[in-house]
């Protein structure tokens, strides 16, 4: 059972995460198309050691971070040093990301094999069997809950999402310090992709996820919980609600899970 706790100091109204397109009255489809900024969504093929592993529908930005974060959060490698190189190749129909990982990790590719056609950042799409649905998770680090830090991060999120402000169609994953300052942020049309990009960026920068928390602009599915735990982060905060399986997995792993983060209330599920 979760519980709601109230936030004593509401976030200023002008920092609200609500988004309204900067469009006046538009009468025709042609006018709309000429003024709207559309988020890019292209097939991104992940190729490990020459073996096609998955195709994700993603925003073609920060793909090096995506490659590293995906490899870590999917358990294909244990640490960043096991990834030797990433080459991004633009093709007519999308992007190919060639990833060179340690030879001893190749066996995991078969264990976590996915089909070559996935949906937008879909966590389960293409998984071969139900045995692969739940990963074995270690216990997440313990963290002291700081409502003011979460409130501070929530207030600063919108201004740091340029793609969201332009398109209204992307998710954000942000790593925040214990004080609530947003130190790293990645965006993508898929929430899983955004989190993978963030995990990759954290690993590249040498930042310890255990010293802060992750804030997502999306709902929370079970795989986002698993990715957060695997990354070594003690707390996950999401703007929208969580699924029952996400709450179950968070509780099992000892992850502090906060959903429905709002100006005046939040729901603790783990």
Description:
- The protein has 270 residues and is of the alpha/beta class.
- The protein folds into 2 domains: 140 residues, Cytidine Deaminase, domain 2; 84 residues, Ubiquitin-like (UB roll), CATH 3.10.20.
- It contains 8 helices and 11 strands.
- It has a 7-stranded mixed β-sheet with strand order 1-11-10-9-8-6-7. Strands 3-2-5-4 form a 4-stranded mixed β-sheet, covered by helices on one side.
- Strand 6 and strand 7 form a beta hairpin.
- Helix 2 crosses helix 6, helix 6 runs parallel beside helix 7 and helix 7 runs parallel beside helix 8.
- The protein is globular.
- About 15% of the residues have low confidence.
Helix-strand sequence? EHEEHEEHHHEEHEHEHEE
How many domains comprise the coordinates? 2
Overall strand count: 11
- The CATH top-level class label of the largest domain: Alpha Beta
Low-pLDDT ranges: 6-35, 115-120, 126-130
User: Which second-level CATH architecture of the largest domain applies?
Assistant: 3-Layer(aba) Sandwich
| CATH-derived topology of the largest domain | Cytidine Deaminase, domain 2
The CATH superfamily of the largest domain turns out to be: Cytidine Deaminase, domain 2
Terminal Cα span = 9 Å
Q: Cα-atom Rg, whole angstroms?
A: 19 Å
Number of helices: 8
Main β-sheet description? 7 strands, mixed
- What class would the helix/strand composition place it in? alpha/beta
Average residue-wise pLDDT = 84
Percent in helix: 25-40%
């Amino acid at each position: 059972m979760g519980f709601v706790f109230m936030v004593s100091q509401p976030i200023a109204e002008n920092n609200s995460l609500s988004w309204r397109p900067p469009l006046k009255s538009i009468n025709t489809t042609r006018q709309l198309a000429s003024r709207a900024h559309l988020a890019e969504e292209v097939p991104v093929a992940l190729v490990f050691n020459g073996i096609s592993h998955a195709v994700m529908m993603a925003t073609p930005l920060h793909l090096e971070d995506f490659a590293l974060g995906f490899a870590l959060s999917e358990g294909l490698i244990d640490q960043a040093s096991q990834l030797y190189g990433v080459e991004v190749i633009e093709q007519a129909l999308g992007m190919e990301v060639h990833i060179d990982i340690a030879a001893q990790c190749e066996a995991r590719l078969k264990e976590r094999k996915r089909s070559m056609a996935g949906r937008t950042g879909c966590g389960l799409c293409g998984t071969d069997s139900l045995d692969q649905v739940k990963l074995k998770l270690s216990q997440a680090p313990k963290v002291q809950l700081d409502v003011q830090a979460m409130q501070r991060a929530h207030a600063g999120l919108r201004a740091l999402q340029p793609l969201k402000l332009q398109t209204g169609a992307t998710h954000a994953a942000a790593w925040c310090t214990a004080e609530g300052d947003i130190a790293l942020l990645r965006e993508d049309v898929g929430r899983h992709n955004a989190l993978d990009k963030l995990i990759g960026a954290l690993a590249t920068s040498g930042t310890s996820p255990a010293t802060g928390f992750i804030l997502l602009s999306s709902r929370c599915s079970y795989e986002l919980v698993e990715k957060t735990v695997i990354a070594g982060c003690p707390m996950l905060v999401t703007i929208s609600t969580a699924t029952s399986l996400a709450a179950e997995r968070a509780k099992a792993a000892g992850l502090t899970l906060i959903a429905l983060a709002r100006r005046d209330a939040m729901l603790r599920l783990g």
